Amino acid sequence: MQRNQYLNMMYMDKDGIVSKSRVKFIKIAGDSFQAYCFTRQTKRTFMIDSVLAVVPIIHKDREVV
């Protein structure tokens, strides 16, 4: 992942609930990473082990954000 890269991500929270979010990657820090979440409209920290799938968003899809 690269800084400021846009991603569609599926992840499982600590209660086992699977969610899908569109995020803008910021940085990796150990076993987690920071990203801006467009769903919650805030910067969040995600555990790498909880990520189920990540798909980069190509430039033309970004306009929908």
Structural overview:
6% of the residues lie in helices and 57% in strands. It has 65 residues and is mainly beta. It is globular, with a radius of gyration of 11 Å. β1 (6-12) and β2 (18-29) form a beta hairpin. The two termini are 19 Å apart. The model has no long low-confidence stretch (mean pLDDT 88). Strands 4-3-2-1-5 form a 5-stranded antiparallel β-sheet, with no helix packed on it. It contains 1 helix and 5 strands, in the order βββββα.
Short structural summary:
The chain contains 1 helix and 5 strands; from the N terminus they run βββββα.
Structural class: mainly beta
What average pLDDT do the residues reach?
88
Query: SSE string, helix = H, strand = E?
Result: EEEEEH
The count of DSSP E runs of length 2 or more, i.e. the number of strands, is 5
Major β-sheet profile: 5 strands, antiparallel
Q: Using the CA coordinates, give the radius of gyration.
A: 11 Å
Structure annotation, total helices? 1
Low-confidence stretches: none
Strand content: over 45%
Q: Based on Cα principal axes, name the global outline.
A: globular
In whole angstroms, the N-to-C terminal distance is 19 Å
Characterize the quaternary organization of these chains.
single chain
What percent of residues adopt helix (DSSP H or I)? under 10%
Q: Which strand order does the major sheet show? A: 4-3-2-1-5
